[in-house]
User: What shape does this take?
Amino acid sequence: MVQDPSRVDVTLEPLDEYLVIQPTSDETETRAGLILPASAAAAAACRTGIVTAIGSDVTGVEPGDKVLYPRDAGYEVRLGGIEVKVVKRDDLIARVHD
Assistant: This one.
């Protein structure tokens, strides 16, 4: 039986001290209401994202937390058309409270 190739259902389970982050959009809105395009945000050294999964040795963050991490940290992975980052817990800079 052949599965439908247009439908991919993949779960990424990180190991040990790794976690999976879904990067948030680089386009942001300032408090004054100005929208900064992603090209302007590309110069920033850090990104934010939502933790979607954690490895067994990760402490201090949980799935659903918004975190700050270096732009060049970890590994970019594309699964099922969704781009995520797999990073080590030590690479996280901060947890963001909106």
About this structure: Residues 1-8 have pLDDT under 50 and may be disordered. The beta strands are 18-23, 28-29, 35-36, 46-54, 66-70, 75-79, 82-88, 94-96. The radius of gyration is 15 Å. Helices lie at 38-41.
